[in-house]
Amino acid sequence: MEKVERQDLFKQIMGNYPTGVTIVTTTDEDGKPVGLTVNSFASVSLDPLMLLWSIDHRVSSLKAFTEGGKFAVHVLAGEQQDLCKTFASKVEDRFAACEWTLSENGLPIIDGAFGVFECKTFKAIEAGDHTVLIGEVTDIQIDQEKDPMLYHRRVFGPIPEEFYTPKQPIA
Questions:
Q1: The whole model's pTM is what?
Q2: Residue 169's pLDDT is what?
């Protein structure tokens, strides 16, 4: 099997793997907020609380995330599709599209997310064409009135109601 064919199959399988959607934010060396949409997000440890995500080496804000020492991961709410698109786009000032504040930890926090993890960078590991960032959680927020966003087959949105519909018991 050729490299391109393997990469296409890899993308096909990963695109069919349902995930949540996040926006990761930090500030650059001038204190300007930067952020991007990320679905490569996972928990790492409960003691201490740690999580990870990965960033493409071609992203213009790479240095801000890999050298900034801290970041915030926003687990998007189901109704934040427009924000998801904005932070995944080439739009220069993505923060103009949302309400946000600077936290006590100096991180841009976007209003309306299902949950937010503020982290200090524990480790950055280069892996292929991405860098994996592991963060130690320093602060957590949750809006229990909201549901998180779901990403599946290149479509994102709220978790469908059918997901919660009771099924027949497995015998």
A1: 0.90
A2: 65
